[in-house]
């Protein structure tokens, strides 16, 4: 991103904060998107189901059958999307261009990562945000997964890499499709852009996991390129 665009976005965010002051999504208190009291009231997943087939109580967030089929070694999701403060923040963040809310989403996800004892696994891995197609990026102005990944990288002292995985197919929005349509829509949408410096462990980052089709396709491409372990993390499930 060019320096002038970064500067413009900072000015724009300052102006937006002035016109629309930050208010807690939970209680409406001014000053921040989520106050400490409402943050502490979040209901984190515990225990976690298999987030791919919804079987209950599977360590690592993925059952052995789904691990074998999809090539995903671990899934960590913070909380539910429906009827939750985090889900409200994600919706505004993603569809109403509320880029500054990405930091609080990274904080929510980081807490769940620590609760699951996975902080050290991230510290030794490379964070790979689910990429946007250039056309979608131009429409939105930022990649919501990349903002969250950058926040996690600062917290865990690891590298966020937006260059390894690229989106090479412009797809319909997954949220508007059913499960079979999602699988077909995302098929062959990603490619590894470089063949050097392939990490042993990659952590795929996104805001929402629904059916897991996007994560599964990205994991397939990374495993084919030589990644040994793929961990998927998302703020919400639903």
Question: What do you see in this structure?
Answer:
The protein has about 240 residues and is α/β, with parallel strands linked by helices. It folds into two domains: about 1-40, no CATH class; about 45-235, Rossmann fold (3-Layer(aba) Sandwich). It is built from ten helices and seven strands. The chain has a five-stranded parallel beta sheet. Helix 5 (about 100-115) packs across helix 8. The chain is globular. The mean pLDDT is about 90.
Please identify the structural class as seen in this structure: alpha/beta
Strand content: 15-25%
CATH fold title of the largest domain: Rossmann fold
Distance between the termini: 32 Å
Helix content: 40-55%
The count of DSSP E runs of length 2 or more, i.e. the number of strands, is 7
The rough form would be described as globular
How would you summarize this macromolecular structure in one to three sentences?
The protein has 238 residues and is α/β, with parallel strands linked by helices. It has helices at 3-19, 36-40, 64-70, 85-95, 102-115, 119-123, 134-140, 144-156, 179-186, 213-225, and strands at 74-80, 126-129, 159-160, 165-167, 190-192, 201-209, 229-237.
Question: What is the fold's blueprint, element by element?
Answer:
Elements: H1 3-19, H2 36-40, H3 64-70, E1 74-80, H4 85-95, H5 102-115, H6 119-123, E2 126-129, H7 134-140, H8 144-156, E3 159-160, E4 165-167, H9 179-186, E5 190-192, E6 201-209, H10 213-225, E7 229-237
Parallel strand pairs: 1-7, 2-3, 2-6, 6-7
Antiparallel strand pairs: 4-5
Helix pairs in contact: 5-8
């Amino acid at each position: 991103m060019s320096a002038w665009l970064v500067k413009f976005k900072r000015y724009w965010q300052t102006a937006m904060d002035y016109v629309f002051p930050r208010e807690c999504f939970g209680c409406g208190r001014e000053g921040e998107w989520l106050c400490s009291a409402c943050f502490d009231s979040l209901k984190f997943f515990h225990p976690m189901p298999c987030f791919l087939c919804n079987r209950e109580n599977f360590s690592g967030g993925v059952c052995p059958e789904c691990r074998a089929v999809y090539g995903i070694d671990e899934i960590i999701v913070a909380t539910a999307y429906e009827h939750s403060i985090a889900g409200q923040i994600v919706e505004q963040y993603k569809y109403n261009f509320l880029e500054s809310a990405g930091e609080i989403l990274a904080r929510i996800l980081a807490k769940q990562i620590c609760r699951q004892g996975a902080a050290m696994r991230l510290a030794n891995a490379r964070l790979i945000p689910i990429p946007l197609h250039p056309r979608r990026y131009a429409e939105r102005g930022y990649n919501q997964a990349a903002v969250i990944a950058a926040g996690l990288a600062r917290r865990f002292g690891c590298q966020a890499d937006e260059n390894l995985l690229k989106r090479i197919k412009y797809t319909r929005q997954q949220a508007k499709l059913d499960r079979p349509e999602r699988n077909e829509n995302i098929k062959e949408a990603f490619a590894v852009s470089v063949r050097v410096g392939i990490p042993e462990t990659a952590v795929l980052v996104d805001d929402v996991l629904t059916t897991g089709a996007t994560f599964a396709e990205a994991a397939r491409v990374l495993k084919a390129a030589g990644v040994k372990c793929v961990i998927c993390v998302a703020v919400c499930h639903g």
